[in-house]
Amino acid sequence: MSIILSPEFWEQTWNKFREENSYTAYNQNNQAQYWNERADQFASHTVHSPDKRITGVLDFLNQKGILQTGITVLDIGSGPGSFTIPLAKKGIDVVAIDPAERMLTILKDNLTPELAPLVTTIQALWEDIDADKNCWDKAFDLVLATMSPAINNLITLKKMIYCSRQWCYLSGFSGARQFELFDIIWNQILAKPYREHFNDIIFPFNIIYSLGYRPEITFTTSTTSRKDNITSLQQKLLSDLSREINLTPVIIDRVHALLMEKSYQGIIEQNVTSTIGMILWKVN
């Protein structure tokens, strides 16, 4: 068998890519803390004011005739309910899994009394879920993982497929994201654009294909306005810069000055452009 038809080959290639391209200090072993700290900000542009990306995914699944009243959905990495809540509003039973307690608290706080019986929440890492113990073999009509770091290797992807009796949906970034302000700072300090390309949908797509499925993939590109606290943004920028150069006091002061120029009342707003790949496949 050709190596490119081996799921293990694509898993190894995926791991190598992430190791070589990751700026982020995100730690797979500390997911709960990472997402707890970001839960309220994340909910502000997903649950309280859903963006076009969320409605786009729901429209995509609707067009495929998948989102029917009475089906069951497993939402892996549900966050604050970005998809769980609108699915429940369609009369769909949803099991929402997330490692962050704060994310699930926000989800439950936003459920009306009519929706609450349709939603079951589980605080856990997807890696730690025992699908057999939960009797989840082919238990769900749709297994959903939207932009979720929980699907990060062959084992977690196979578990996702194992739980579905009909459909699986997985989305992730395709190519590098473009951060308007980060590009300005990177060009001034490093004379090159900022590059955040720590993951790519091509890798799970090729794993799915090499497992014998024939997935459909659709791409969508959008530009959104992102607001961040200047303190957290400076921490991220300095952390990313430290991978490229030695952080001298002069450079640290320069980054701070550039951020201050763009901030208003401690908040910085910038445009972020990204392309997302949406994978859909049947498992039966």
Mass-distribution shape? globular
What is the string of helix and strand elements? HHHEHEHEEHEEHHEHHEE
Rg, alpha carbons: 20 Å
The structural class is alpha/beta
Counting DSSP H or I runs of 4 or more residues, the number of helices is: 10
Give the quaternary arrangement of the chains: single chain
Q: Classify the beta-strand content into a percent band.
A: 15-25%
Low-confidence stretches: none
Distance between the termini: 24 Å
Description:
This protein is α/β, with parallel strands linked by helices. It has a single domain, classed as Rossmann fold, CATH 3.40.50.150. Helix content is 39%, strand content 24%. The protein has ten helices and nine strands. The protein has helices at residues 7-21, 31-44, 52-63, 84-88, 101-109, 154-162, 180-190, 202-210, 230-241, 249-262; strands spanning 72-76, 93-98, 119-123, 140-146, 164-173, 178-179, 216-229, 263-264, 267-282. Strand 1, helix 4 and strand 2 form a beta-alpha-beta unit.
